[in-house]
Amino acid sequence: MNQLYSEIKNNSFPLDLREIQVLKYNVFYDQISDFLKDEAKHCVAYYGLETSANLKFYCCIADDNNNSIIVFAHEINKDKPVLKSLTPVCSQLHIFEREIHENFGVEFEGHPWLKPVRYSHDRSDKSKIMDNYSFYEIESEELHEVGVGPIHAGVIEPGHFRFICNGEKVLHLEIQFGYQHRGIEKLFIEKNDALQRCVLSESIAGDTSVGHALAHSQLIESLADIQVSEALQIERCIALEMERLAIHIGDTAALCGDVAYQLGQVVCEALRTTIINTTQFWCGNRFGKGLIRPGGSNYTLSNNIVDEMLRVLDDTGRRYSEVTDLIYYLPSVLGRFDDIGILTRQQALSLGAVGMTARTCGILRDIRKTHPFQYYKNYPVRSVILETGDVLARGMERNLEARESVKIIRELIKIWRQKIKDIKKPVYDYNLKPNSFAISMVEGWRGEICHSAITDNNGNIAHYKVKDPSMHNWMALALTVRNQEISDFPVCNKSFNLSYCGNDL
Description:
Elements: E1 6-8, E2 15-16, E3 22-23, H1 25-35, E4 41-50, E5 54-63, E6 68-77, E7 82-84, H2 94-104, E8 107-109, E9 144-148, E10 160-166, E11 169-176, H3 184-190, H4 194-201, H5 209-224, H6 230-258, H7 262-283, H8 303-327, H9 331-337, H10 345-351, H11 355-359, H12 367-370, H13 391-417, E12 436-443, E13 448-455, E14 461-467, H14 470-480, H15 489-496
Parallel strand pairs: 3-6, 7-8
Antiparallel strand pairs: 1-6, 2-12, 4-5, 5-6, 9-10, 10-11, 12-13, 13-14
């Protein structure tokens, strides 16, 4: 075989495992380092699984130039798990190599910092525990450390933030997770009931129920060769945009709260409620749980639901535009957003940033556009791209994307009305293709969600991998607070609003 990799031309299209050539690591190393020199390519997944004698690894690279996903593989003897680290030449791989090290004990020679990603319950070295983890330190009488969490003043999930400060200025922030041990990826293998897997997928990150459920359903449909109608594809895209809209409005409220602009906070909180209540009117759950299922839907759209959705969008869209015009006009708000928490374009590229985080640094990372799925294959999305990479950009990104989502939903509804509503009930008694590899990507409101699976000889799921966009982007938060006042951390943190549970799988 001359070609050293396999190429998936269409998002969610499965590969026969025999088509994926297993490379020697030095060849793999050269190929990956060469591919990732191109800014239009980034790593969407790199993980390992254990076989009888070896550790086998799959690496998936998204190529935005031709809408494809490139799949590489290599393996090593699990008794001698030592590899030359790719991180020094492809820094975006730092998080993937750290996860592999944590899960399998692979030593990546030359990696600058093999710190734990999440202290997973089934980590390779059980002696490595939170209590004996050595946080980064700088010895100096002029510096002090500030620890925040894992238990926070607000009702949020556990995570620890360790600041090293000179007075009020932050010199370094280390973020540590691993306080939740849910074992989600193993549950996808252990749960043989298809409905249980659906419920599991929409529970990965509660604020992204639609996004993760859609990634799972796409994956199952590709492996089971299930075709869905255009009407259902449109409904799924509408649900995804409703989720995006609700979170962006809610995050606008939170940003206003962090800079003490109470009017913007309370108005946006109320407006968010109108959107999630509309989702509840549609499917009985404010967060869209139960709405996305493989092969069909139990909650198909109807004219009365669509009419109510349009009524709410007209009212909420107008009110949101009015309040954000005020928010991004007030000097007191702009003074706390502008030029605060800057992530440069080069930093974003180095981290492999995705979604909103990348788009606010002038990088087009939007799966709806670069690797279109569902009805986005027929409906061209206008991605919002900003340049400054600061809190203001991340706030404005939400503002402009929310307005764009309102427009997208309205236009999709017009198209939906003209489609034949041949939507079937969900399919739970499917048979998956044996000895296959599949990957599914969805542009959630945070960014790129990726689910991938490998089936065995009998078509059972032998390996399941989940990647929330937060895995790429948490390091971005650590970089943006450097040389900022520590009092700027809350608004910087909220401007990203990354997922704790999406990281602690």
